[in-house]
Amino acid sequence: MTHTTRYFLLAALLLAMPTAYAGESGAAVKADELKTEPFRDAKTVGKLTSGDKVEILKKDGGWFQVKSTRGNGWVRMLSIRRGEARKTSTGSEITGLAGLASGRAGTGRVVATTGIRGLNEEELKAAKFNEAELKRAESSLTSRAEAKKFAAKGKLTARKLDYLPDPEQGEQP
Amino acid sequence: MKPIANWLTGLGLLLCLGAAHGFNLGQELRNAASELQKPDKSSRLGGYSEEEETAIGRQIAGSLLGAAPLVKDQQLQKYVNNVGRWVASQSERPDLAWHFGVIESQDINAFAAPGGYIFVTRGLYRLLDNEAELAGVLAHEIGHVIRKHHLKILQQSKLVDLGGKLLAKQVGGDEKIHNLIGSGAEIVSRSLDKNAEFEADRIAVVLAARAGYDAFGLPEVLQEIGHSAAGNSGSVALLFKTHPHPDERLTKLGDAVGSNFDGLKGLTLANRFYRLKP
Question: Minimal Cα–Cα distance from B43 to chain A, Å?
């Protein structure tokens, strides 16, 4: 298949898929292999090292299909961070914390138009116990049996899987 | 997906003990306070009966709802309870009276209180794209409940024994208790240990996968929160204050997951996902 055809098909696929990322940028946060398919046993077509930029094309379970200068293929999504660069997130973090420190956090948002309150510390502190609302919340309870029916309707099947140990402690949870 | 919110959870604790009326509170407090002096009391972790735990959780939940009421959409609330209960059924506490809800706040956050009370903000819910992402967010909060993370910090603050004792007698609260232990906000603005958050993340991907969902719903939401416009606004201030940054959480989660889930497939159920009315 020619490249042109392939890209055309890819474009068509992307349009059809809700989880398509349409060229969103990202970067590798750890070294990992690029695979021809979203499976561990698939052929390795390249290797990403931490900091490599990628273009995210789509997602399949725990895998991203990416384009990069190291090759094109599938890589584990947890090895990739979406977004331009790490400093973007650091910057936002600083902004958030600075906002809190100066007492402005949560007060600069435009909420007046909707009348919906935010949940900053002052508002939480001033909150009064609301029995009626709590009872309303409790009235929506779903029983275990009901939940099972709901799952079956969506074709969800329960399966066994062990908890993940903490990699730093090597302890079994 | 869109972003996230869950994380938040931790928060939840609003402990507000708040409101009760009518019995001899002063004497109760004195008795309870003297109990606290006994050395073995403060070291008892998670040793509450389910009844006490639920009483504490009810107080926190009722206070949170006092700050942000439920979204007035019964279908939405039922849907969230259906998803949440199915995920909670995969945990070691399947028979707790689990309650889930979406609350009116544009903030991006989620909260858990002891006894199985879990709330997601409208702001967080709006970031979600499918049922697997909702399941992942709720599963993180479920993780806090089953590991009793909030009860443990309450206990460390030495307020729990007191609070549980009083609450078990009478659900409600009182201005005096409120003054004694501080307002709900004080508790909410207290962060859980970072490791408790990482643990809840590890539990979340497993519970979602056990329930048949795509295990990566929560990581999707974290990615979104970490890098979207939402992540740069004041709507995540409280979340970021009480939780490690999403990038750090994703890194820890990546280390824990490794290649464990490589062959695991699950459903996202985007078609069934209940969309908020604009």
Answer: 21
